[in-house]
User: Fold NudE neurodevelopment protein 1 from Naja naja.
Amino acid sequence: MTDPERSPFGSAEEEINYWKELSGKYKQCVQSAQEELREFQEGSREYEAELETQLQQMETRNRDLLLENARLQMEVETVKEKIASQHADGQRQISALEEELGQVTATRDQLQKYIRELEQCNDDLERAKRATIMSLEDFEQRLNEAIERNAFLESELDEKESLLESVQRLKDEARDLRQELAVQQKQEKPKAFVQGSLEAGRMDTATQAASSRPSTPALPQGLSYGFSTPGAFRRGFENGSGGAPLTPAARISALNIVGDLLQKVGALESKLASCRNFVYDQSLCRSSAAPPPYLGRDVFERRLSGPHPPQG
Assistant:
C-alpha cells in the first residue's frame, strides 16, 4: 500500500473515485468469472453426463468384449486341442505312410528284380523256341524225306507182292516143266535120256544156287533176257512154250530167270527192312528233342508198317 504521505492522488475524493472505479472493474471481473464458472459448471455437468454415458457404454462394451474374449479363449483352447489331436493323427499317419512307403519300395525292388529275371527267362525261352523251331524244321524235313522214302518203299512192296505172285506162278510152271521133262525123257532114246538127266541135274543145281545166293541192296540184272516185268516175262514164256516144247537150254534159262526174280525179291525185302530200321532209329533220336504234336510214335510205326497205296 502506498504511503499516505506520498499519495499520488491530489485529494481524498480522487482517491475514493479511483477505488470506486477499481472496485467496479473487479466487480465486473468477478461477475464475468462467476458467469464463466456457471457456464463451465453447466458444461461440466453436461460433459460429465456424457462421460458417464460413454463410460457405461464402454463398460458394457468391455463386458461384452470380456465375454467374447473368454469365448474366443475357449475356442482357442478347443482349436489347440483339435490341432494337437490332428497333429498326433498326422504324425501317426505319416509314420504309417513311411512304413507303407518302405514296404512298397521293397516290393517294387523285388518286382523289378523279378521282372529282370522274367526278361532273362523270356530271352532264354526265345532262344530255346528258335532252337526248337529249327529242330522241328529239320525234323519235319527228315520226316518228309522218310515219308517219301516210305511211299517209295510201299510202291516197291506192292511190286514185290506182284513179283511174288509171278514167282509163284513161275514155280508152278517150273514144276509142270519138270514133270513134262521127266515124261519126255522116258520116251527118248537112252542117250537122250542120259543127256536129259544130266541137264535136269544142272537145272536143279542152278535152282538151288539161285535160292541160296545172298541178297544185295543192288538191283539184279535178271531182267536182261528181254522181259522188263513179270507180266511181260509170263507173256514171253507163254509165247515161247505155246508153239513147240521148250528145249533143255530154254528151261534152264527160265529157271535162271526164276532164281534172279527170287534174288530181286530178297534184295527188296532186305532194303525195305533196312529202311524201316533207319526211319525208326531217326524217329527215336528226334523224339527226345521236340516231337511234333500231330505225329506220335504209334502213328509213325503204323505209317511205316501198314500197307499204303503208292504216292505219286
The helical segments are 12-187, 190-212, 230-243, 248-287, 297-305. Residues 209-244, 289-297, 306-312 have pLDDT under 50 and may be disordered. The chain is about 85% helix and 0% strand. The longest helix spans residues 12-187.
